[in-house]
Amino acid sequence: MWRRWGFFRQFKLNVIQLARLRSEPDAIARGMALGLFIGFTPTFGVQIFLAILFAFLLRQNKIAAFIGVWITNPFTAPIIYGLEYEIGRMLLGMPPLGMNHFAGELSWSMGMSVGTPLLLGSLVLGVPVAIIGYSVTVRLIPSLRLWKIPRWPRRRNKSL
Predict the structure, then answer these.
(1) Which parts pass through the membrane (predicted)?
(2) What distance in Å separates the CA atoms of residue 39 and residue 47, rounded to the nearest whole number?
(3) pTM of the full predicted structure?
């Protein structure tokens, strides 16, 4: 049953793709760190484009950066962005936003009161996550290359 869930299938395909990259573990880990950092920025919707662009400009592994961006997906984005906002808000000493801010129209001041803490929180969380992601990936790649990842069994056509 778990094979029908797209999330697990995508995760397995990303692990397989990461293990089969023909680069040094250090190069793959640098691309992964870049992707993780960009994945933590509040640029939901253009993160993949940004990761590939910066990987190209910084000459990092583009596929690893692409995979690293998947840290923020529709399931994890609310948790990550909420945590980033709260950390940034606390560091700036701002009061929490009440529902009265959301009752009116969107304004520039509301965008600044949400965007500034979110950006600061993304930097505060993105840097350690990228460093941890680098160290985990550089150690994980050699063992992933030794690991035999089995294929999922194919469905047999019962009509024949």
Answers:
(1) 32-56, 63-83, 118-141
(2) 6
(3) 0.75
